[in-house]
Amino acid sequence: MVVALAAGPAALAAPAPTAPPETAALPETSALPVPAAPPETAAPPVPAVSPGASATSAEPSASAGSGPGRELYWQKCASCHGDQGRGSQRGPSLVGVGAASVDFQVGTGRMPVPDEVQQPRRRAEPVFSADEIAALVEHVTSFGGGGPDIPRVTEGSLGTGRELFAANCAPCHGGTGAGAALTNGWNAPPLYEATPVQVAEAIRVGPGLMPVFPSQVLTDQQVSDLAAYVQRLRSERLDRGGNPLGRLGPLAEGLAAWVVALGLLVAAARWLGRRAGE
Amino acid sequence: MIMDRLARALDDRLRLSPLTRRALAKVFPDHWSFMLGEIALYSFVALVLTGVYLTLFFDPSSADRVYQGSYAPLDGTTTSAAYASTVRLSWDVRAGLLIRQTHHWAALIFVAAILVHLVRIFFTGAFRKPRETNWLVGVTMLMLALANGFTGYSLPDDLLSGLGLRIIVSVVESIPLVGSWLVFLGLGGEFPSDEMIPRMFVSHVLLVPALLVALVSLHLAMIVRQKHAQFPGPGRTEHNVVGSRLYPSYALRSLALFAWVLAVLFALGGLVQINPIWLYGPSAPDQATSPAQPDWYVAWGDGALRLFPPWEIHVAGHLVPAPFFPGVVLGGVTFLALYAWPFLERWCTGDCRAHQLLDRPRDHPVRTGVGVMALTFFGVLVVAAGDDIIARLLRVPVYDVLYVLRVLVLVLPVLAGALAFLLARALRRGDAARLGELTRADLRAAGRRARVGEARAVDESELPARDRPGQRIELWPDGGVWRWRYRDEPAGVTLLHHRAVLTEREAADSARLAYPGVDHVAVPGPPPPPPPGRVRTALRRWGNVALGVTLLVAALRQRRNRHPGDDGDGTGSR
Predict the structure, then answer these.
(1) Does domain A19-141 have CATH number 1.10.760?
(2) Residue B313 main-chain phi, psi, to 5 deg
C-alpha cells in the first residue's frame, strides 16, 4: 500500500541521524552507515581507488591483517570491494562498515554474490562456515573506520518488542513479518529466517533501503526485545487459525475463497442439479 | 403420531393445508445455475449463526482495556476493548477462533455467491420484465452486503482494518463541500472517534442484517409470486415452469446444498487462517502495516484509488481531491448502472414484453459484451489492489506494475468485451453448440453486419405451439382426482403436472394454460410408470448379480462345512 509506505519513515520513533532515507539509492552491498558517501551515487563511493585497480586487486599486496580471513577475502571479496576494502566500480567500500555489517551480509548468505545485483537475496545456507565468517569479519574490520560491532542479544520482552515492531518495522516488513515491496524494485524481505543476532545487526547496520537505528534511537535492550518478538513471529504456533496463506493478507484469502470455496460450492450445485435430471 | 396430531391441530385452527399443499408443490427448475443464489442465502444463514456467537464475547467499545490472556506478546497491553476482546475471542474463548474465522470466510463467500448469482441473472436476461423489481432488490442487497462486510472487517479495531477505515474516511472527506461534514456526522467527531466502533457495531449486527432479512424475504416472496424463469427447452413455454416439486425432491437437494455450504465454510474456518488480527496488532493512527489490502469485495475500490493519477482539480474555487473520482464517482456510477440496466436495456431494444424464458448469453451479443467488459474492468481493479504483492512476487518495481495496470484497465475490458461480443454472435449465427466447436467461418460470419430478420428468429420459439406433430396432453382420473401430463414423443419428453385437480375440466384448463394450442385427449386408467433411470437400472442389475453370487457362495460354503461336519459327527457316533 502506497499510503503505508509513504507513512513508513514518518512512523519511526525518530529519524536515524546517520542515514536519512535519501541514501536509500545505495546498493545493499554497501551496508552503509558511512556519512561521507554522496547520497545519489550508486557507484563506489570511495574515489581513492582507481577504476582499473579492481582487475589486479586479487594479487596480494600490502596486507592489513593475516591468516585465513585475508586468504578468503582475496579469493571471494577483493575482486569487487578492492584489496584494501576501498571498493571499486563493482562494489562499495568496506571501510568503516563495522563487524555487524560483514557478519550480517556473509552470515545470511547475501554475500558473496556471483555478479552485480541490486538487492542480493538471502541464501538458505551461508557460503562460508562460522569460523570462516569470523575470520572474514576480523579481516574486514582491520581495514579500520570503526562501525557497529556485532550486537549482543540478551533476553527480551515480547510485549515491548511487539510495540517497537509495530512502530518501527511493520510499515515495511509488514505486521506479520512477511515482507513487502518497496520502491524501485527493492523489497523488505520476510523475517522468518533471521536469527536474533541477524535481526539486531540489521537494526544497527541498516542494509539496503533499511534505515539505521543507532543506540540513540533504540537501546540495546530494545533491540533485544525486537529480536525476541521477531523470533516469536517465526513460530508456527502464531498461525493458530490454520494455513496462513503466506500471511499475505486479504487478497490471498479472497483468492482462496473464490478458487477453493466457491469452486467447491458451484461444483456441488452442478452435481446436485445434474443428478436432478436422472 | 404426535407430529400428525400437531399438524391436525394447527390445520384446524389456521387452515394451513391448502397453503402448505400449494407451497410443497411449487416447481423449481432443475438447472444447477438456479442454486447459486441459494449458496448466498445459506452463507447468510451461516453468518447469522456464527455472528450471534461472536456477539456474546465481542465488546464494541473503544475504551481502554488491558488484555490478559494466553497471547504472550499482547499480555498486559492496554488496547481498545474491541481489539482486546477480539484477541481474547481468538486465543482464550473455546471455539472462538473457529467461529470467528468461519464468520469471516462466510462473509467472503456470501458476497462472492451474490456476485456469481448476479452474473447468471445478467447474462441470461432474467432481470427483464416482470423481474426488474427483484433485480433492484438484489442489487440493494449486494450493496448492503458490501457495507456490512466492510463494517465487520473494521470492527476488531486492528492495524490493518484501521488503515482501511482511514482510507474510506478520506474518500468520504473528498466529496466537495459536504465531505468533512458527512464524516463528522457519521463518526461523531474526528477520525478515529470514540463513537466509531459502537456505531459500526449497531449497523453491523442490527440495522443492515435486519434490512437484509427483510429484503431476502421480499426477494423470495417475489420469486414465489412471479414463479421462476427457465431456460428454453422441449415442453417449456412462456406459460409454465418445468422442474422438480419443492417437496420432496427440491427440498432435499436444497438441504444438501445447505450442508455443503456449512461443511465448506467450517472446514475453511478450521483449516485456513483468515485475518490474524493478533499479528497485525491494535490500530494506531501513527502506525502502518504492509502489504495492506481490504477484503476482495472492496478491493476494486482500493485498486481504483491506486491506479487513478493524483489529479487535483479546482472547480469554482473548490478543490476536488483525487480520491473523489475513483472513490466516490466510480462507486456511485457502478451501482447506478446496475440499478438502471434493466430499464436501459428496455429503452435500447424497445422490448417491453414480459419474459419467462431466459436468454442464453449468445442470444444478446451486446449485453454479453457489455457484461464481460464490466467484469474485466473490475477484475483488473481487484488485481491492481494487489500491485505491491505482484511487484514482490515478480521482483519488479511496484511503479512499473502500476503503469502496466493503468494501461490494462483501459485496454483489456474493451478487448475482452469485443471478443465476447464476436464469440456470442458467431455462436448465435453459426450452428456450433459450444465455444469449442466454433469454426473460422463462424467467426468470419460474426464480423459481418447483422442480417435482416435475425432478431425475429429468437421470438418464434416463444409463440404458442399450434398443431405440432407428436405433442399432446393426456388426462386421466387417478382415484378421486384428475391428473394430466404433457408428452412430446419426437423429443422423448414426458412432463407430469405437479398438482392433482378435482375435475377433468380443471385439468384441461390448467393444461391449456401451460400449453396453449396443444390438443388434449383423455386416457382411460393411469398410464404405465416411466422407465427407471439409468442409475437405478444399473443398481438393480448389480444388486441382482450380487445377490446371486452371495447365495451361491453361501450355498457352497455350507456344503463344504457340512462334509467335514458329517465326518466329525460320524466318528462321534461310532
Answers:
(1) yes
(2) -110, 140
